Amino acid sequence: MTVGLNAFILVAGLLxxxxxxxxxxxxxxxxxxxxxxxxxxxxxLALVAFSRYNNTMDGxxxxxxxxxxxxxxxxxxxxxxxALFRRRQTVMVDHLNALSR
Amino acid sequence: xxxxxxxxxxxxxxxAALLMVLSPNAVNGAMCMIVSFVGTAAMxxxxxxxxxxxxQVLVYAGAVMVLFLFIIMLLDVDKGECGFLKDKLTLASSxxxxxxxxxxxxxxxxxxxxxPEPGLMPVLENPTGSGAGIPFTTSSKSFGYSLFxxxxxxxxxxxxxxxAAMIGVIVVSKKTEEGK
Amino acid sequence: xxxTQSLLLALLTPLLSAALIAFFCRRRGAIAATISVAAAASIxxxxxxxxxxxxxxxxxxxxxxxxxxxxxxxxxxxxxGTSATMLTMVAFVGFLIHVFSLGYMVDDKARGRxxxxxxxxxxxxxxxVLADNLIMIFVFWELVGFSSYMLIGHYLETKEAAxxxxxxxxxxxxxxxxxxIGIVYAYWHFxxxxxxxxxxxxSVNPxxxxxxxAALLMCGFIGKxxxxxLHVWLPDAMAGPTPVSALIHAATMVAAGVYFLxxxxxxxxxxxxxxxxxxxxxxAVYAGFCAYAQNDIKRILAYSTLxxxxxxxxxxxxxxxxxxxxxxxTHAFFKALLFLGAGSVxxxxxxxxxxxxxxxxxxxxxxxxxxxxxxVLALCGVYGLxxxxxxxxxxxxxxxxxxxxxxxxTLGAFLTAGYMxxxxxxxxLGQPKSDAASHAHESGLTMLVPLxxxxxxxxxxxxxxxxxEQLGEIIRLDLDHLHHAEGYEGMHKTILIFGSAAWIVGLFxxxxxxxxxxxxxxxxxxxxxxxxxxxDRLWFDEIxxxxxxxxxxxxxxxxxxxxxxxxxxxxxxxxxxxxxxxGMCSKSLHVGNIHGYVYWFxxxxxxxxxxxxxxx
Lengths: 101, 180, 616
Fold this sequence. Notes:
The complex is a heterotrimer. Chain A is mainly α.
């Protein structure tokens, strides 16, 4: 394969940017959360690419941990969102501004 | 051949991600997300990280996104959340920000004076684990080996983390009784 | 008590009187009047004691007032012959005018304020007379300007008084700007502002005389003594009560400028002196012409004052400061007399001021009319009266020094006699031309006695041989110089002829031209373009009005706009707006808005990135 490390990093960077776009742009909490996961995913890709090109296993193992922790985080986060929905009957971020008073 | 695959899968990943961000319907977004994750898994395969590719599909695309779908459908979010496309200011500023990041990243890696590319080194078959940098192999045996030698502590801690997360989820999503 | 103590008491008594009146007696006019007149009397007493105590020596005393590092401002007295002479005149004439005001202002409701103003004026004027350094003179200069403002604007309800007081103050201020710059420059140049020290430095090293300093200090004189081009305030200042016009705008304040020049004679190079001489001559002739087109008795006298001030500065400019002082003193006597006489007339005719509405006053108010006549004759320089000696000396000095100046000054003498004659014949002779004039009555004693005393002084004031020896030393000196100058004898005869011709031609000519008790101005009837031109007074007021209203106002508006826009808008509101912006951004952290948090994360990320990239 002649594709170099830079190409992978480029893709990871663009993926990260798209995820960030989603976090800023959307008002639905769930979609924001999914965009966060997208950003994590981008980081994973970058790590794996570095790991391969540096000929070491450390990056892959780190991705392993990231996937695990991300899964746990998603579970807890979604539970919180559900609890929030039960309280406020909405998941739109601009309605969840009780602190502003 | 592999290059073409790379371009295809990276295009799939990026386009699916973009679709997810821009789609008004959350369920549609979740489905596009799954496609994006699968694309990422394919890229892991291209990088000869086979174990991780499977892990990605199983955990991320399989468990995490399914959970997302469950919750989205549970909360039954209204479809009428197209407001973000009508808010011109937010739209414009977001795209400008995105463009900036994109340009930054591209210029770092693909423009003139981009970062130097390290070469792809050959892969060893037999792992020789040692304290410093575990050499890259494609077998999952080296995963296990590293997990139980170099990364023992993070491994155990992650176990505890999963336990805590499980208990936390149960507690948080409990319905409160009347009068408590 | 020593002379210094007497001087200090003389200076502080009117201040005390003003303070008493200001704090306690503003409504009680009678008490205020008594306090003020008592203060004026005590000034006379203290002056007498001081002169006797000084025994002809120059008295110097000073106290440190402000010290900044090694810059020292002191207040002190320089009591030499010149200041003794001036002090006597100010004290005595001031006292007489105070007594006159007792009668004149008897039915004025704001008497307390008036007498308070008179007292503060006496304090300020004495300060100028006694001062020994430029800064002290400047302080009291401004105080005199303030008293003048307060007293001109005494009739608060009339618009003319308010406008005139403002005009006087502002025009004076313009002159004072040059004065202040001159003081600063003098301090920088000499290292001191003390008059004695500067005189000593200059006598040792004549190269220290600087035309610039002299010209700048002269600006104060131009403002205060109403020379070109800042003369416009004096005619308008007649809106104040007549005693004020007599005291301030005839005898003392406007003379303060000339007195100041005499004090700093040693600073003047020849070219500045020549300039002053020409300035004085110009205003003497100009005012003489303008007086022909005025109908208000006080305005005619105001232009006469302008004209005589021109004579004084011409005398100074020709190099004879003593003669300028001489004319100052004699002018104070007869001009105060004329103004007080006009006051008596106005009071008697129930505040009628137009001469064409008076008439036949000689029969109704004999004492006033007689003293007024003496004043007129003294002013015109009739032989033997006070004005003759001083005017004579000025004309001789002009003839010996500078022929064009001499010609113009002689022309001024003709004009003076002409318009004073016009005034006297029309106002005092003939038949009464209005109701008020026909019911005129003689004024009371408080008003007549000062008139009589001043009339006596106008007669004997010029007989310098009779002056007490402590006074007028500088006058005698300069007269001596004059008598020993070349060509004195021939010039003396010429002046005698011209001077006599001036008053004879002027007085009798105006009698036959205008006629006694005329009903209207014959010049206006016969040659009304000439009259109209004279009435316009060379359009000084109009030019200044145009400048202020159009040019200065526009500049002020522009600066005001810049002030509002730049200072208020950008700097003040801008900085407040910036703070508000920072506050709003910080507020987003505490509101619960997820997107706000994201932006903050981004900001922090960028900061860290920059730090990692080595930007700072």
